[in-house]
Structure formats: structure tokens, C-alpha cells
Amino acid sequence: MSVKENKRLFGEHLTSSLIFNEFIFPEIQNSLTNYTWIDLYAGEGHLIFPIIERVQVEKREEFFRNHIFLSDIQQKMVQACLEKAVDLGISEKLATQNIVLRDNLESFPKGLSKFRYPLFHITNPPYLYLGYIRKHRSTQKYLPYFEDANDGYQDLYQIALINDLRNKLENLIYIIPSNFLFGAAVSNKIREDFLKYYAIRKVVILEKQIFEYTGTNICICFFNKKKTPKEETQMFWGIKIKKQNQIIEKNYALKPEFKYRAGSEFEEFLRNKRAKVPLTVRYYLLNEDVSKNRGKNELSVIDANNYENGEYKKLTIKVNKVLENQITSNILYAKTVDSGSEEGRAGIGIVRDDFNVDGILVTGNTYRTHPIQIFLDPPLSIENQKYLKEYFNLILEYFRDYLDSEFLTTYKYSNAEYTRKYLGLTQVRGLIETFPLLNWDETKTEKLYKLIRDKDIEALVNFL
Q1: Residue 283 β-bridge partners
Q2: What's the CA gap between 142 and 144, in Å, rounded?
Q3: What is the per-residue pLDDT for 243?
Q4: Which residues, 6+ apart, have CB-to-CB distance to 43 below 8 Å?
């Protein structure tokens, strides 16, 4: 098994001590003797041993006895921790008492009550998405973690968080995928369950590759248990470190009505500005649509399921007049994934301009990451569709700039100068539904179109 395959198998991404020293230690340096520092997914102990190194050598044995507990599911990691502890002056007998082999996702260790100081959990837990676990035989052994009381959670790190909640730990620092903050379906349940009991004090978001074997963007979350469980807006300070080490600092507000998802200002816009008479949106030109509407009218299409050598395969289909009119009168398509350049960002495009065909045909399964033809009801003129395209992309880019694209889902790590994002089809529909053409008179519509032509985005948003 390769090193990379082993990382996938265990959901293991070892934390650099540099991350601890730069971002975590300054937050705890004045409290070292106030807590028992534990890491239940310790790996090689990079999040705990730097604490011991700051204790005077002659005091380390006593400090280790009262303030340190390490555990991991892998024997090789436990052995590495034992050797490191001995190197730091801890007796082998004590090291073996406070560094143990154990599956802490399966259950929380019960022996921690022996420590006289409150537990403070600092960890980089395993993360492996449930969808990946189900698809691969080597990881299906983890499926029992998601049964019974854990049904509905979507990642191993979420099991770790909920175990800590159930065992009433008061202070946590977790290094976890940033989808905890920004993910939708993948993170809605854990946020709603967890943030009722814990407050986020601070977040450091690392929007660049940190670990060698994963492209997952991570965040360091500092949690404190609330005195009383409460559903309330979470307000906290965040630092985002982007590629090229650009730093963005901002206040975050996670609202329960939006499932505590960061970047909810975009969702609020979609809800508050939805047109009184919205356009109806339908996605995809399917093979079955062509089969049911065969005729003599030839149209050119791309096959969304056949992408080779940098382009989609072109096909000719023969359809009846009804379907021909539907295809040719709906000129727009959704590009849901950033391609890695500023010119290739997600948004709405014109089929003919970008592919030189009449339509986009799905010959196999529908995929959200393919170009997707948009069908509108009632039909719009070509001119009005072009205005809709400009309107959509202006609003989208406004919020990408205002929210640093945080309302979008990170697609995957790449070497692009900016982090590639994924635009959800629900978001596409919601933004189209704010286009107020159907319920405005000619005078207001002309004012709207002038603002679009002028690209006056601030005035446009206010006008809506």
C-alpha cells in the first residue's frame, strides 16, 4: 500500500508542529498548568509535545503525569509518541500509562476522570467523507461509526466532535476541513447539533495546501462550551490565510436560520430579493427528451458526458419543431465549477458563444459539474436572456468579492491563483429567481437594464 493510500485508509493527515507553534500555542501559553491536555487522535503527537517542550526538564515527569494524555488507533503512532516522550525525559512507565492504543471514534475513553484538571482537547482528528467511505471497500469498515445515534453525520471528524459534546468537554481546538464552516448538506447537521452547545471563539482558515496528501482546505476552530445550550447567532473573529500568504481578517456571523453556514449573506439576498413573480427554472436536455421528440429538424449539440482532449464531443440530433424551439430559444447554460482562471469562473454563459452549438445534451448520468443548459418558463426573448446573464454574473461576482466566495463550496485544491469554487444548482435557481422582469413595468425594467449595462453593481443591489 502506498503512503497516499494509507493516508486515505486512516483519514490521517499529520499536523505540522509549525501550525501548533504559530496559531495554537499563543492562545494557550498562559494556561499550561490549568488543564489536562489531551489528543485522542494524536498521530505522532505534534499538537501536544510542543507543550511539554516548554516545561523545564526537571518538571516534565510531574507535568506529564497530571497534564498529558495521548491516544491513537494505530500502533505505529502510539510507538512514535512513546519514543518521543522518553526522548523528552519522561519515564517509560509513565509514558505507557498516559499514551495508549485505542479507537476513540468508536467510544470515548472512560479513564480520563483520573486527571485532576479539566480536559482540554487539541486535535487534528481523522477526516474522511462518508461518500468516499461507502465507495471504497478498504474504508467501508468505518460505516458502523455512522449508525444509530450518529446517523446523519457525514465525516469522521464530525463523529469526533459529537463524541466530545456527549462527554461534556468544555474546551476544544480542532483542525478540521473548512467545510465545517462553509459546507451545505455535508455539514448542516453537525453545525446545528454542535453549535447549540459550543461557541466558536476564533477561527483560522488556511485556504492553501497544508498537508502533502490532501487538497482539503482546513480551519483551526477554537470552541468553548456554553453554560446553557442555546440556538443563537455565533459571532467570532476569523483570520483567513490565502495562497501567496495573503491575509484577510473579518468578523463572522453564523445564523441558526441558515444552519450556521458562513457566507449566509448571499442566501439572505436570495430569500429577501426573490421576485414576486419569479422565473421557473428547469435544468438539462436529456436523451429521453430527444427520444420522445424525434423529427426532421437538425440541431448541433455537445455531449456533456463526453469530454476528451480539452473539449466536448459534438453531435447532430434530429428533433421535432416543438423541441427545436425549446432548445434554440433557451440560449443560456450554467457553468457550476471554476476552471482555474479569472475568465473561467462559475456563472451563466451563452451556449452558442462558448461551444458553437445549439444545445447541451446529457447522454448519460446528470452531473452537477458539467455545463448545464437552462430552460426558462415563461420563455424570455434572446435580448432579455442576455440581460439575465449579465445580471446574474454581476450579482454573483459582487458577492464573491464581498464574501470572498465563502457562500460557494470549495471544489478541489489546485495550483490556481485563487481557490476554485463550486456553484450549487440551488444557488443558480435562487439567483435567477431574483431577476424581477415578470413583475416590473417597462419603466422599472429599463432602469434595471441601464444599471446592468453600466455595471453599477452597488446601485443595482440597492435598486432591487
Answers
A1: 374
A2: 6
A3: 72
A4: 12, 14, 15, 72, 77, 124
Q: Could you tell me whether strands 332-335 and 280-283 are parallel, antiparallel, or unpaired per DSSP bridges?
A: unpaired
Burial class (CB in 10 A: 0-12, 13-18, 19+), 89: middle
Distant-in-sequence, close-in-space partners of 58: CB < 8 Å, separation ≥ 6: none
Which domains can be identified in the chain, with CATH numbers?
3-262 (3.40.50.150), 280-463 (no CATH)
Residues sharing a CB contact under 8 Å with residue 455, sequence separation 6 or more, in sequence order: 394
**Phi, psi at residue 329, to the nearest 5°?**
-90, -10
Residue with cell 495546501: 209
8 A C-beta contact, residue 223 and residue 199: yes
C-alpha span between 98 and 84 (Å, rounded):
13
Separation CA 144–CA 130 (nearest Å): 11
pTM: 0.80
- Three-state DSSP at 463 gives helix
User: And the C-alpha cell for 26?
Assistant: 499563543
Read off the amino acid at residue 223. F
Give per-residue pLDDT as tens, 21-70: 889 999 999 999 999 999 999 999 999 999 999 999 999 999 999 999 99
Beta-carbon neighbour count of residue 158 at 10 Å?
28
Crossing angle of helices 425-432 and 382-402, rounded to 10°: 120
Query: 77: left (phi > 0), else alpha (psi -120 to 50), else beta?
Result: alpha
pLDDT in tens, 326-368: 999 999 999 999 886 667 899 999 999 999 999 999 999 998 8
